[in-house]
């Protein structure tokens, strides 16, 4: 829904086909589709650097075909180092395909042998379901497929861990805002309690332990409201963090490097994965999130209503004969 508002306000030219449910599904086919969609419409959500220089990012004024051709030119020596792969659309598709496969494998990799973390929130062995609005879902429907194997994320991989934290947000902003107002009203009466309640930190072990209480039954207390507010802040931080993947070509017999290795069709890469932008979302940002959510929902509702009205009008215009029959009751 946010995509519709961004396009309407001129921030982006067209709606991205990327759906986070596809990326977090753990299903390689859906993840491949999500990453490829990000490459088609990066929208500042995906950047690629080569030796520290930005070679691919959000260039809204250019066509994806032009950007993909340049990206393939940069990356071809890494994925097809010696086979003389010709240039042109075939070469571009081959390089992009290999890049997406490698990224998918890296995102599904884990180092703790499937050991689950302390938060027991996620979708278990299965990933999130397919979103009906997802371009992948529509593509699946066109192909005549009604079901898809739900692979789920390995518990040791970074996406699984991020998803657990994101799912601390059990109420969404509409359910959370009244609880935020409860905390605000309490702090207006007792401002000296702000430090005692750890509203602004410190974010230590005691703060973390409070996050583990996932009860949803509201007992009317300030403690319950504040716990949900803090869980929401942590979840929003995980939803807006950045993942950095570093790939470095390595020789077949390279064994001294302790970094994990991922294989492509003709190359192998040592890789590392890091998480950035983990500063906790400010407590004061909640009213802004509430207002933004209202704008997103209102615009989407109006846009969908207008679209439905246009469709009905078109159908009436296309109908040549219309007979209204009234029966006495």
TrEMBL record:
<dbReference type="InterPro" id="IPR009286">
    <property type="entry name" value="Ins_P5_2-kin"/>
</dbReference>
<keyword id="KW-0067">ATP-binding</keyword>
<dbReference type="Pfam" id="PF06090">
    <property type="entry name" value="Ins_P5_2-kin"/>
</dbReference>
<keyword id="KW-0547">Nucleotide-binding</keyword>
<protein>
    <recommendedName>
        <fullName>Inositol-pentakisphosphate 2-kinase</fullName>
        <ecNumber>2.7.1.158</ecNumber>
    </recommendedName>
</protein>
<keyword id="KW-0808">Transferase</keyword>
<keyword id="KW-0418">Kinase</keyword>
<comment type="function">
    <text>Phosphorylates Ins(1,3,4,5,6)P5 at position 2 to form Ins(1,2,3,4,5,6)P6 (InsP6 or phytate).</text>
</comment>
<dbReference type="GO" id="GO:0035299">
    <property type="term" value="F:inositol-1,3,4,5,6-pentakisphosphate 2-kinase activity"/>
</dbReference>
<dbReference type="GO" id="GO:0005634">
    <property type="term" value="C:nucleus"/>
</dbReference>
<dbReference type="GO" id="GO:0005524">
    <property type="term" value="F:ATP binding"/>
</dbReference>
<dbReference type="GO" id="GO:0032958">
    <property type="term" value="P:inositol phosphate biosynthetic process"/>
</dbReference>
């Amino acid at each position: 829904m946010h995509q519709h508002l961004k396009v309407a306000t001129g921030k982006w030219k067209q709606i991205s086909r990327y759906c986070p449910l596809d990326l977090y599904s753990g299903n390689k086919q859906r993840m491949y589709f999500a990453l490829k969609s990000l490459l088609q419409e990066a929208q500042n959500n995906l950047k690629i650097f080569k030796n520290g220089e930005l070679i691919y990012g959000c260039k809204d004024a250019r066509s994806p075909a032009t950007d993909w051709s340049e990206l393939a030119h940069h990356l071809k020596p890494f994925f097809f180092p010696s086979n003389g792969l010709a240039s042109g659309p075939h070469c571009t598709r081959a390089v992009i395909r290999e890049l997406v496969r490698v990224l998918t494998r890296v995102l599904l990799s884990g180092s703790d042998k499937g050991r689950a973390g302390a938060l027991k929130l996620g979708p278990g062995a299965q990933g999130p379901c397919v979103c009906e609005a997802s371009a992948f879902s529509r593509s699946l429907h066109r192909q005549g497929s009604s079901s898809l194997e739900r692979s789920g994320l390995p518990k040791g991989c970074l996406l699984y861990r991020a998803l657990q934290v994101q799912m601390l947000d059990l109420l969404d902003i509409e359910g959370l805002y009244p609880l935020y107002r409860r905390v605000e009203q309490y702090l207006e009466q007792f401002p000296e309690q702000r430090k005692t309640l750890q509203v602004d930190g410190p974010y230590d072990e005691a703060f973390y332990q409070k996050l583990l209480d996932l009860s949803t039954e509201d007992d009317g207390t300030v403690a319950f409201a504040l716990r949900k507010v803090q869980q929401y802040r942590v979840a929003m931080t995980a939803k807006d963090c950045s993942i950095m993947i570093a790939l470095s070509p390595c020789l077949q017999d390279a064994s001294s490097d302790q970094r994990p290795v991922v294989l492509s069709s003709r190359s192998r890469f040592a890789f590392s994965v890091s998480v950035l932008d983990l500063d906790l979302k400010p407590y004061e940002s909640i009213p802004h999130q509430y207002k933004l959510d209202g704008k997103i929902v209102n615009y989407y509702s109006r846009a969908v209503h207008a679209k439905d009205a246009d469709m009905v009008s078109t159908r009436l215009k296309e109908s040549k004969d219309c007979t209204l029959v009234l029966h006495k009751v």
